Amino acid sequence: MTTHNNNNTCAINDRDVYIVDCVRTPIGRGYNNGALHSVQPIDILAHTLSELLKRNEKVDRSLIEDVICGVVSPLKEQGANIPRFAALKAGFPNNVPGVQLNRMCGSGQQAVHFGAQAIKSGDMDIVIGCGVEMMSIVPMGSDWQLDNPDFTHGFKFKVLHQGVSAEMIAEKYNLTRQELDKFSGRSHELASIAQKNGYFDSQIIPVKTPTEKLVAKDEGIRVPVDYKKMASLKTPFKENGRISAANASQISDGCSAVLLVSGRKVKELGLTPRARIVSCAVVGSDPEYMLLGPIPATIKVSEKSGIPIQNIDLFEINEAFASVVLAWQKELNIDMSKINPNGGAIAHGHPLGATGCILMTKMVNELERSNKRYGLQTMCIGFGQATATIIENCSFKPIAKL
Question: According to its UniProt record, which residues of this chain constitute the active site (predicted)?
Fold first, then answer.
């Protein structure tokens, strides 16, 4: 593990990986009437990349050695290696390459992992990990073949919809619909408090639509919470079930980017890092109980880092479904007050490929705001995978005990 100086802020070690900055767009509802629907994926990604570098003038665009982008539906408007095209559109020089990847819901977080691994290995010094998903333009499932019996034949497990898996998890962990709806309401309420208090303002880069409308706030947050209405919604995955639209993540549009730099380059360019990448992990898990992957992923990343789970100060777990978060919390006995303190995807939405970087951006900012040291991010992934990352707040200052 990296040594630290006397006041417990990050020591800058040459081959360690640092988050120098991170930004995200507001998250729009992923429908034709959503705030960001009129913005093309390539344009919102180009805007995000450009704004990230405008905020970091010491990093010349020619120094970027790769733009790694998570895209879960990488076709049509989101295909053709969109990060390469977006980087060029953003004015990056020709020498800057780009590549897109699809690890389903973990794609944005995996982009950060791949960038961090390239830096840690010594192959690169500066990488942008990013993600984009405009679900109102390229619908979820556009690249699937799950309705094709030739594709699904021959597996030794049932090929299930994620919502069915979420129902199975709720049943396995004895989670009632009331518990799930209560957690969902908590997400909206915390996100609303964060939005009203301006916690998101410094991390969000406003987006101007083709009609000159400026979008600057997450669109999906709904308060006051109407628990009676939530309880009345249908449970589409099981008759009289527990999973409804109210306790699942929203279909959304959005983009985010994270600037990763080696310690060597941080010192050379005189940069001020915001966080250090401590440890990364990815796991495979049961493809039927496909959304339980965050449990082994959290354990694995904790063991790799040498930091016990109980010593983590803040958790960002993707709220794909409320049952995923509550099962993980129950299994690992995690203090609820540490989990998604500014709400999650149930409230602000889940623009698939972008969410991993969005959660990372939220976590960096909240660690700084609350003066907490370690944050852990984890995400469930369809058909049994999960990603996890631990980061350290470089501006953490211990409070002296009286």
Answer: 105 (acyl-thioester intermediate), 350 (proton acceptor), 380 (proton acceptor)
